[in-house]
Write a structure and sequence with these properties.
The chain has about 160 residues and is mostly helical. It is built from eight helices and no strands. Helix 1 runs parallel beside helix 6 and helix 2 runs antiparallel to helix 4. The longest helix has 24 residues. The two termini are about 65 Å apart. The mean pLDDT is about 85.
Length: about 160
């Protein structure tokens, strides 16, 4: 394909991907209005510069007398456009990479390399001073022991100890 054919091909794809009649101009505007794009995506600024340049070249060929594909373009220009088309198709273009870089990720639990053995705890009944305990006191003590067991289990599960 020649430069103009490759440009039209890319222009059509940009219009379809962005659902915008401005096509390559819409892609360029999206890049310009994307915060931190050049920070998060390698080659962002170079791709933006190339797209602007090729849009200008296309406009020169289309609107200026004596400007032709032959005197305005090199074979490498067509190759760049075709490569950029492939990047969009493979979702490795700047906007797709930015979207991947800024997509919220689910929180991951820390991976444990080994499972620590759970210590075995033995609980004995509390001793009393030979006084008769009331049923309420026994119930309260049972409740407290249950709470203690739950707290120890939570601590062990979360790996705090």
């Amino acid at each position: 394909m020649g430069f103009i054919e490759s440009y039209k091909h890319l222009e059509k794809l940009c219009g379809e991907v962005l659902n915008d009649d401005r096509r390559i101009s819409a892609y360029i505007d999206e890049m310009i209005n994307t915060p931190r794009g050049s920070y998060l995506v390698r080659g962002w600024a170079d791709d933006l510069k190339q797209l602007k340049h090729y849009r200008w070249v296309r406009n020169q060929i289309a609107h200026e007398p004596d400007c032709t594909e032959q005197n305005m373009c090199e074979p490498s220009d067509t190759e760049w456009l075709d490569d950029f088309y492939s990047h969009i198709m493979n979702q490795t273009d700047p906007l797709a990479l930015y979207s991947k870089a800024t997509k919220p990720r689910p929180a991951q639990k820390p991976v444990q390399n080994h499972k620590p053995e759970s210590p075995t705890y033995t609980y004995s009944q509390p001793t009393y001073n030979h006084r008769k305990s009331s049923p309420q006191a026994a119930g309260c003590m049972t409740f407290l022991v249950g709470v203690l067991i739950i707290v120890v289990a939570i601590v062990l599960i979360s790996g705090i100890l």
